[in-house]
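Whiteboard transcription, Tuesday session. T.W. wrote the structure tokens on the left side:
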């Protein structure tokens, strides 16, 4: 019986760690969404600048340097636009990755919760402990630990 309760305690602790991980990922996800909105606004502003620049009739200037200067400004604006769009693409990819990992972790937490409920029902009814359920608990504990370890590795790599 001691080992059974120890397994339950470990599962509960790991479920709590997963919930903390979900919260951390959600916070990061929300920050990325804010950054994404800001970048979209900046891109829209630069688009408007480019359109205004293109649609503004130029007074023909005999000076080559003023034409060259206007071309350089236009080119720099295009570069800024490209950089912002690259940043946005990276952020949106990261957002999608975070959303998927949050989903996977939530499924694992739900699975853990359901297994713990089944175990608690069995213990509450004072029935004999099902070997299959213990095996399931141990497999789930391994899955939880591997998931937590993989996110620790991911977090260390991303730093």
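and on the right, the sequence the group agreed on:
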């Amino acid at each position: 019986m001691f080992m059974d309760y120890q397994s339950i305690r470990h599962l509960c602790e790991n479920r709590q760690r997963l919930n903390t991980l979900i919260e951390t990922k959600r916070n990061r996800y929300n920050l990325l969404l804010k950054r994404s909105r800001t970048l979209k606004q900046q891109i829209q502003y630069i688009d408007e600048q480019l359109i205004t620049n293109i649609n503004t009739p130029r007074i023909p200037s005999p000076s080559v340097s003023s034409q060259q200067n206007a071309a350089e400004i236009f080119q720099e604006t295009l570069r800024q636009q490209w950089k912002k769009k690259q940043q946005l693409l990276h952020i949106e990819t990261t957002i999608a990755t975070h959303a998927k990992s949050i989903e996977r972790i939530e499924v694992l937490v739900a699975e853990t919760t359901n297994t713990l409920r089944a175990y608690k029902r069995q213990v509450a009814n004072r029935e004999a402990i099902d070997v299959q359920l213990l095996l399931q608990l141990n497999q789930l504990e391994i899955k939880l630990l591997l998931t937590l370890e993989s996110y620790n590795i991911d977090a260390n790599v991303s730093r």
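Someone added at the bottom: The chain has a mean pLDDT of 81.
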